[in-house]
Design a protein that fits this description.
Elements (H helix, E strand, L loop, with lengths): L2 H21 L4 H5 L6 H10 L7 E5 L5 H10 L2 E6 L2 H11 L3 E3 L12 E7 L8 H11 E14 L15 H10 L3 E7 L8 H18 L3 H18 L3 E9 L10
Parallel strand pairs: 1-2, 1-4, 2-3, 4-5
Antiparallel strand pairs: 5-7, 6-7
Helix pairs in contact: 1-5, 1-8, 1-9
GO molecular function, one term: methyltransferase activity
Organism: Pseudonocardia benzenivorans
InterPro entries: Methyltransf_11, SAM-dependent_MTases_sf
Length: 258
């Protein structure tokens, strides 16, 4: 992983957890979902991936655990965060007490067919082996199980993407899903969902400011800011768009309901 990606996914989570410890636990969820999806997107995913009481939800590349913690609190799920960066795993345990395991998407440390639901948010666009990741997600899902994806898709990329990113086109994404034998149930652009509540945005900004005040002169913070600024430009100019997809692994119960 590049130095820029290390700054964003290993160093930054530790700083965020420290800031949340000072600001209060109400800041944990918004801060830990930054760069992923907000409350409206999480509800959309939970509804369409059948996240429910006591069901095992495996969040692959789950970062600081914000989405997994939301699913536990709001839907009673039993989440497991699988994340390659130790700093992010540490933050997920510290802020939410979530079970975590250090592991990558090319060999998810979960048994075949164990997960009632699988989430993979913002990860597919950081690997060149998209088919390999999708096949792993399919392997750990129960037959007929649902998977939720958040993918940044290429809609006419002209500028240089942030380090470590490989955005698929809509065609490439559809082809990879078909080859992995995963069927799309529903999809939506994140921009078409309701914006996060003002209080959510406020707590995110306050956490960012707390991190900046303590670490703003450090090289890792500057690298992360460069990454985020580059991605923001791509989103603002429509070169890249955030897309949510609910897919399922066909099986003996795959035709029950929507």
């Amino acid at each position: 992983m590049s130095t820029s990606m290390d700054a964003e996914f290993d160093v930054m989570p530790r700083w965020v957890a420290e800031a949340v410890a000072e600001l209060g636990p109400g800041h944990a969820g918004p801060a830990a979902c930054r760069g992923s999806v907000g409350p409206a997107g999480l509800r959309w995913l939970a509804d369409r991936t059948r996240v429910g009481l006591g069901g095992l939800l495996v969040d692959v590349g789950g970062g600081m655990g914000g989405p997994a913690a939301w699913a536990r609190e709001q839907r009673g799920a039993a989440p497991l965060v699988v994340e390659p960066q130790p700093g992010a795993c540490w933050a997920a345990r510290r802020m939410f007490g979530l079970p975590t395991v250090v592991g990558s998407g090319d060999a998810v440390p979960v048994g075949d067919g164990r997960a009632a639901s699988v989430w993979c948010l913002g990860v597919l666009c950081t690997t060149t082996d998209k088919l390999g990741l999708l096949c792993e997600l399919r392997r750990i899902a129960t037959p007929g199980g649902r998977l939720g994806l958040f993918v940044l898709v290429d809609r006419g990329l002209r500028d240089q993407p942030p380090a470590g990113n490989s955005f698929p086109s809509e065609f490439e994404l559809a082809a990879a899903l078909a080859t992995a034998r995963l069927e799309v149930v529903d999809s939506v652009d994140v921009a078409d969902l309701p914006a996060a509540p003002p209080d959510w945005e406020r707590r995110t900004a306050e956490t960012d400011e707390a991190v900046r005040a303590r670490h703003g002169r450090e090289p890792a913070w500057r690298r992360m800011q460069e990454q985020q600024a580059r991605l923001a430009r791509l989103l603002d100019t429509g070169q890249v768009a955030g897309r949510l997809l609910a897919v399922h692994r066909p099986g003996e119960v795959s035709r029950r309901g929507a």
